[in-house]
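re: that chain from earlier
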Amino acid sequence: MATILIVDDEPEIATLLRVVLEKDGFDIMEASNGQIALERLGIDPPKPGTILPDLIVLDIMMPVMDGYALNTRLQADPTAKSIPVVVLTAKGQKMRDLFEVAPNVAAYLQKPFDPKTLRELIAGIISKSRKK
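^ sequence. v structure.
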């Protein structure tokens, strides 16, 4: 089954995402900010051979390194730039506009989100990316 990295600093949201996505059989990794995500992905510090997730669910507003800075780093990394990203934000259209030109962003979901919508969205993205 596919692996998903959840990057969110709100423990309640991360737990909800984990429970919902594990029900669908996904393996889950977690990071509470962008810097921890870079470590889990083997990007900073570099750790060649790190197994990458099939998709990243990314919050925007986080301490240490926010979602926008993390996504910029992902796009600059040859091993991570093709991982699809679902942006999860409470900031709505304002943040969406920042990511408009990011080729790795597959979808946006506004908090609070409907778990069923999230599950369907992620299943569709992973299915599509596996057909490539």
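The chain is about 40% helix and 20% strand.
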